[in-house]
Amino acid sequence: MIVGGGSAGWMAAAALAKTLGESLDIHLIESEEIGIVGVGEATIPPILKYNDLLGIDEATFVRETNATYKLGIEFVDWRAKGHSYFHPFGHSGREIESFPFHHYWLADWRRRGGEYDYTQFNLETVAAYKGRFGYLPAEGDKPGLNYAFQFDAVLYAKFLRNYSAERGVTRHEGRIVSVEQHPESGFVTAVVTADGRRLEGDLFIDCSGFRGLLIEGTLNCGYEDWSRWLPMNSAVAVPCERVADITPYTRATAREAGWTWRIPLQHRTGNGYVFSDQFLSVEDAKTRLLGCLDGAPLAEPRLLKFVTGHRKRVWDKNVVALGLASGFLEPLESTAIHLVQSGITRLLAFFPKTGIVPSVVAQYNRDVLFDYNNIKDFLIAHYKISERDDTPFWRWVQAMEMPDSLKERLDMFRETALLIAREPELFRETSWLAVMMGQGLLPKTSHPIVETIEAADLRLHMSRWRKMLESRADSLPGHEDYVRRFAPSADLKMRMASAG
Questions:
Q1: Per-residue pLDDT reduced to its tens digit, 461-470
Q2: Active site located where (predicted)?
Q3: Is 70 marked active-site?
């Protein structure tokens, strides 16, 4: 029994129906009264694996969700006002004689003053800033193009709802008013709706959003609050008219008390301001957001309130929490959909056949919370490495203590240029390097072996790599042209027709 719809609920329903549908009776209950937290949603490349699991045709998916393609995230004003950098999905450069590329970039940068930023030696970055996109596999030493999607979250949930219904998932409309538990084990046995229906289940998946109806409201699992590191507790979101070609990337712009997102879709642009209400009022946040839109707003700004952190147990007894019911991390690195996906993937791997096994539950909780902690450190790094101190918010960030795990990682890199990602972290070395070096954290030295390479030889290698990336990016069509030809939505077709 899946409690709650939205992206999390229907992602769970679709995956279970595809993989275990012949052996399970799958039900989902949601209420139209409650609605979902649906804004423009940006994703990261692992979503391709989820779509492959479901056997989803990419053109159909892009068309039905008003999706666009995403090569990474542009960060504006994070290091300092007027500065920007790109966090791409692929690797920058390539290893030379088994040494990571960033050592060579550092050596070359010091010798000639840094002609290019680190991620300008990355195919996704070059293609993104040229507005290019297309399917481009790797060829020998030449990198392929890694990508994800930007889509309408409401349409995504609807798409997966239709997919699930076609595969036998039963949907119930209703608002849950009470939850029944076994008197001895405490396991949830049924949920009861406002109109008196009693819906039983053996395993319950809580996708009820921030309130965590089962995992918290019934089982009282508790919540680990990370506000001391990530103080943002509010967001206002609003869509606006699209007034220019679709960019193949998301943009995150640092602001006086947080940051704003810009997510370009086929039919509109999604926008939001994530902020701390200790430093900015809701009304001021709305005003600031409306003042930085590309086009006319299509609705009134909507307020979302949250507490950054996670449930202390995301699987307890026979309840597994997914999505906002399990925790919340601000969408700075587009991890919301991925956390749902990784939770589902682990649930499928650990799926109970004969009953709930405590050791399996414990391992699931360890794995999920490892993900949360890795992402938490990565998000904090964006704030902590910044040079900004121009507002009370940024001065507070500069003064706050870091988690030991993050401090050790940053100290090691600063002193030695060594960066060791821990398996199986979501954000690997390439992501940490993009953010750390993009925000100005440059090591004091590069590897001594790299320093022995002649400057002319190193410069030639760097120049050849840049030229190759430029050539590969130039071979791609424009992003908007690709979307128009490959998978235009009904909204985009109307826009094209009206434009003549």
A1: 889 999 999 9
A2: 70
A3: yes
